[in-house]
Design goal:
The protein is built from 13 helices and 20 strands. The protein has 416 residues and is an alpha+beta fold. The protein folds into 2 domains: 4-196 and 359-413, 3-Layer(bba) Sandwich (FAD/NAD(P)-binding domain), CATH 3.50.50; 200-351, HI0933 insert domain-like (Helicase, Ruva Protein, domain 3, Orthogonal Bundle), CATH 1.10.8. A hairpin with a 3-residue loop joins strand 12 (215-224) and strand 13.
């Protein structure tokens, strides 16, 4: 016998966007059923920020808008509906105190992501949301009047409205396996190919292993295609297989997209990004004029880690023991090229793509009403979170998008 249920709203996916969409709609008086494929909801939320959960970035909306790739117009209504300060108030009104660090990154005061999740689970219970875990939509049909959701268990749920908040296609062991994209496609939506974003990069150069663990704080990274494309600033971390760190994570979504079309992608890392070329050149001139007997390696090691400086000498084919006074014009130009134009690296792949922090790609934005999160193709269908083709920089921006889009979807459900 088939178990049949009815609801005003079914929300598929109990991640950050689905949780806030469900409680917002329930608080407006709607009968909400929330489905979660894992045995426990919010598994990926627990893993964010290394378990500390960087909830958002407490910065003004105009600056926030510039933190999403090519989607400023689309994300604006959601971010205005639930800006960072309003999100912080939401948590504090529900018993979770927050703190803001020196970079305007917002965390739970306890620094524990479990406290963020428990705040939501308590709210789910108090709002009257019906939560089914270990349950996911195997198929969805819209018969013209309602949605018919068939779960893998055989349960059938009929609802007037449906929210797809199934996440992306990374960390499948935490619940994001890409099935939401299949459901969206079955409901006539176009899905831009999902690819990993916010991830480390694998390079063909093996020397990075010699510098594994080294970090440069004031660096910048760009894609080198005859011009500096998609430059990103911040710390860069060298790894056994390539590079990582905030600046690399931020450019990785662009590299990922290019790697889907090409076998390799050329990037450069500017290790002294805060210095102009003239300043670096003057550094060499002063060293040659005033510290001629000093080894050039010692001068450069005052600015950068010695293991990295060693690699510069190898790249430039210059003796490690050369004195400043003996550096030729040609040798200086080689060093200037590395220090100013950047360290050349050839990216051949993504470091553990299945563990990428976000998915780039997803349901196309032009098929969704950005003022409500409702589908432009199927009335009563809503999207929020990572399933949409929106991704931002690392540092709280993607969770802010998840919460804001989920809140706007939940709010729109009760008034449409």
């Amino acid at each position: 016998m088939i178990d049949e249920k009815t609801a005003d709203v079914v929300v598929c996916g109990a991640g950050p966007s689905g949780l806030i969409a469900a409680v917002t709609a329930a608080d407006a008086g709607m009968n909400v059923v929330l489905l979660e494929r894992m045995d426990n909801p919010g598994r990926k939320l627990l893993a964010t920020g290394g378990g500390h959960c960087n909830i958002t970035r407490d910065i003004p909306i105009p600056k926030l808008l510039n933190s999403y790739f090519g989607n400023a117009t689309f994300v604006k209504p959601a971010l205005k509906a639930l800006p960072p300060q309003a999100l912080i108030r939401f948590f504090e009104q529900n018993g979770l105190r927050c703190r803001v660090d020196t970079n305007n990154q917002v965390y739970p005061e306890s620094d524990k992501s479990i406290d963020v999740l428990n705040t939501f689970l308590n709210k789910v219970k108090s709002s009257g949301v019906t939560l089914y875990t270990g349950c996911f939509a195997q198929s969805v049909v819209h018969d013209g009047t309602c949605f018919i959701i068939t779960c893998q268990s055989g349960t059938v749920i009929k609802s007037k409205k449906l929210v797809l908040s199934c996440g992306g296609k990374t960390y499948p062991q935490l619940g994001s396996d890409g099935t939401g994209f299949s459901l969206a496609a079955s409901l006539l939506h176009t899905v831009k190919k999902p690819l990993p974003g916010l991830c480390g990069l694998v390079t063909s150069q093996s020397w990075t292993a010699e510098c594994s663990g080294l970090s440069i704080n004031d660096a910048s990274v760009y894609i080198d295609q005859g011009q500096r494309l998609f430059p990103q600033s911040g710390a860069v971390l060298f790894t056994h297989r390539g590079v990582s760190g905030p600046a690399v994570l931020d450019i990785s979504r662009c590299v990922s997209r290019l790697l889907d079309e090409h076998s390799v992608v050329s990037i450069r890392i500017r290790p002294l990004a805060t210095m102009r070329r003239e300043e670096i050149d003057n550094l060499f001139i002063r060293a040659q004029q005033k510290e001629g007997s000093k080894r050039l390696r010692s001068v450069l090691c005052e600015l950068l880690p010695s293991r990295l400086v060693k690699q510069f000498f190898i790249m430039c084919s210059v003796d490690q023991e050369i004195r400043c006074a003996d550096v030729t014009k040609g040798q200086k130009l080689k060093f200037l090229d590395i220090l100013d134009n950047g360290i050349p690296l050839t990216v051949t792949g993504i470091e553990k793509p299945e563990f990428a922090m976000v998915t780039t790609g997803g349901v196309q934005c032009n098929e969704i009403n950005c003022k409500t999160m409702e589908s432009n193709k199927v009335k009563g269908l809503y999207f929020c979170g990572e399933i949409i083709d929106v991704d931002g920089l690392c540092g709280g921006y993607n969770l802010q998008w998840a919460f804001a889009s989920g809140f706007l979807a939940g709010k729109s459900l009760s008034i449409s």
